Amino acid sequence: MNKSDVVVIVVTYNRKELLVVTIDALLKQTFQPKKIIIVDNNSSDGTEVFVKSLVNKHSHIVYHNTGDNLGGAGGFHYGFNVAAKYHYDYLWLMDDDLEPSVDCLQTMLALQHEGIIQPIRFNLDGSCAELSPIKYDLDSVFRLNPKNSCVLDVYNPECSDDYIEIEGIPFEGPLISRSVVEKIGMPNPDFFIFYDDLDYAIRARNAGFTIKCSTKAKATRLLVNNQTNDLRSWKGYFMLRNLFYIHYQYGSNAFVKFKPFVIACGYLLRCLLVGDFKQCKITWNAFLDSFALKNSSLYKPKSK
Asked: What is the pLDDT at residue 227?
């Protein structure tokens, strides 16, 4: 039987009703984690009262309020720091809208992988929702979307393969070995949201680790995965800024590193032609701020 020590990090913000489901699923795991760290990004919906009531019943649950909305990136960075206080062999990262199956952790541990393992995600209706990229192309200047293909494109429930190798992860269920953390450190909090998980995956692969998506370890997304965010909103700012940064930081050649400028100019021209000056401002600021991942505080959403 696997003797690994696993520490779970759950980042949450004003989703108490979903968090209830996530924590319940964690408490029902056939392989119980050593600690469950709840990182609360200063929720205002009663999350703190709820989790503290659980702490009194379950000694392995610990609660930390960040005091501010640090975003997913900042929340996981915070959680890594808390986890450093405990001995662990793996960190299991969990969003507050994910319900892992009861044997999810045990199934991933059975792979005995010194790298990163991602469970395969499904929608509430049972359809596959795993969009982790099999190939993330930062070599071709002509590819607007670097995600060539994803697990959803190739997944076959009848296939006997235990895993599919991937090049990116969401911070929704990945099991990360201690050796990865020791070599590449923590997630970058400056992303706030979007692409912090991809950045971590690229850093892990560049350090020589492989990433596997387990086809047997399953988890359910409790919300619809919305891949079309409004680029005129605060989310659009972070999506563009962080995507540009990924190209600068990891593009394999000068042409790929230059691609954000071309994309930004294309957006700006379109916005000017249709008179969308709000989108024009967001795109321009995202481009300027992408070099150093700065100005998160100007665009992050106001606390609820």
From this structure: 55
